[in-house]
Amino acid sequence: MKKEIDNKLKSKNIKPTAMRELVLQVLTEQKTAISLPELEQKFEKADKATLYRTLKTFQENKLIHSIEDGSGSLRYALCQDACQCHPEDLHVHFLCAVCGQTYCLSDIPVPKINLPAKFQLESVNMVVKGTCSNCKQ
Amino acid sequence: MKKEIDNKLKSKNIKPTAMRELVLQVLTEQKTAISLPELEQKFEKADKATLYRTLKTFQENKLIHSIEDGSGSLRYALCQDACQCHPEDLHVHFLCAVCGQTYCLSDIPVPKINLPAKFQLESVNMVVKGTCSNCKQ
DNA sequence: CTGTGTGCAAACACTTTGCAGGTGT
DNA sequence: ACACCTGCAAAGTGTTTGCACACAG
Predict the structure, then answer these.
(1) Least CB-CB distance to A123: which of B120, B125, B129?
(2) What is the DSSP string of B78-121?
């Protein structure tokens, strides 16, 4: 378990520390994207700033990606193994208006957009809002 | 000028007040989406709270729409005349990483997404990030 | 007179930075 | 000894609410 976590960190050139292992552990178990405040609550006693910097490090090393889902705070989720966070790697996210969960719809790639002339694409943030299968009766 | 502004407000069932006229004026002249702090700076002396509530009113009456562009703050822009803020009315937005402007690409509708079973769509927020034509050399 | 709009102040939520002490190599 | 990681504190940014007064119908 811990070994796998460590390997994942190392494979992304992140020095494995206790804190980072724990955070990655949580992110791995978490099926939906999580925000910084939510992550903080997962721990008895953890420092916002440390978590913040940990997430930042993870993001810089393409271990996780962030989603601006319109809920007022950024959310983070593990990248797919092969992900390079390029436009072609991006997928759609889904924010449930009822339970507030943000899902990675990893199977649904972001559709290609034809931008106006001289507009250069770098990345895309696409969030669908609605009701998820759990909250739908 | 003022007459048109007023008519627009009335057509959306918003009582025309001095403040609202000014705000709508600014939004009309503004080619790109604007954030609350930015809007505040457009005026010599204006109250955040009032602007905030004005925008909220505008939004509730479908005069403007808001975009979560990932810049950390919400941005607002005028709706098209026929807009009902339904999923089929939505268009793509473009955030320039250089100048920070957010453009409404009103001509580019948000592509239709096939959600997983039992996921119900309500709205879509799609922001493309990159370099705009002004900043591109 | 009543309901709505405005301005000021303050609370709030989340993010970000500075600094000092700790840890591992 | 050095580079990096962590924890505490505090500042920063943007959003939201409470309250009292102004204003128009």
Answers:
(1) B129
(2) EPPTT----GGG-EEEEEETTT--EEEEEEEEPPP--PPTT-EE
